[in-house]
Description:
Layout: H1 3-18, H2 21-28, H3 32-46, E1 51-53, E2 58-60, H4 62-84, E3 94-100, H5 102-109, H6 113-119, E4 123-129, E5 143-147, E6 155-159, E7 166-170, H7 172-175, E8 192-195, E9 205-209, E10 212-216, E11 222-224, H8 227-235, E12 240-244, H9 245-253, E13 258-260, E14 271-276, H10 283-293
Parallel strand pairs: 3-4, 3-5, 8-11, 8-12
Antiparallel strand pairs: 1-2, 5-14, 6-14, 7-12, 7-13, 9-10
Helix pairs in contact: 1-2, 1-3, 1-4, 2-3
Amino acid sequence: MATDNLTHLAAFAAVARHRSFRKAGAELALSTSAVSYAIRALEERLGVGLFHRTTRSVALTEAGQRLLERLQPALGQVHDALEEMNHFRAAPAGLLRINATRAAVQTQLGPRLAKFLLAHPDVRLELAQDDGLVDIVAGGYDAGVRLHESVPEDMVAVPLGPALRGLIVGAPAYLAGREIPRHPRDLHHHECVRFRFASGHLYKWQFERDGQALDIDVPGRLTLGDQNTILQAVVDGLGLAYVLEDSARPYLDDGRLVAVLEDWSEPFAGFAVYYPRQRQMSSALRAFIDLLRG
Length: 294
């Protein structure tokens, strides 16, 4: 295949992933006009339109969707072949795209980013924060980071860090004059700050003690989609919240928050980095995982 054709197909796949010519250009280190030219040239060669374009959105046509479905496996093989060559290099190199939850970025990835980039100057890292369940293959990511229980079964999962624990926390000012909950069902008498996933699913608070497990659909007037915002709301005295202990620890240590129902908070498997089973691991991803596990 001619080099131009391969470049045009790579541009098409990037625009399809991002639904944006600008973001595709950023990924490919090309200008927006160069990406637009590549797409026009590909459409002219094929004789069909591949995208519906407006001033506000970019969407695949039926022909574009069909081409993407046929093209992705082939581009994946090209990607793997090129990445395999990195094993012959003295140091990891290339673009590494990771999709992780915001909690994973805060507790696992964020504190290690500077060390990783300083150690591997030929690696470019793109880190997307997303609390939803993302198809990392369709999204063009090399790997994802989620709670171990959320990793798809067809992925290779590498555990990161120790087990985690969820805690129910509240501000002393909120708890003053209120009855402290002794059992998860007591939460029905409290104001709770709830969490909704990006998928729209409302999280039920999970508890376990002595082999007894409970899921509680707590009441509450405030529902948020970000753990940091939830923590701030709880510090402000708006109610109780279920958060990761690691995220709440600074607030617990300085007294801004206190934990309740700790005897119902059992540890669970923590975060894992995962990648497609059938894909060759790049040297950059291997270095990234080694750093996270170290």
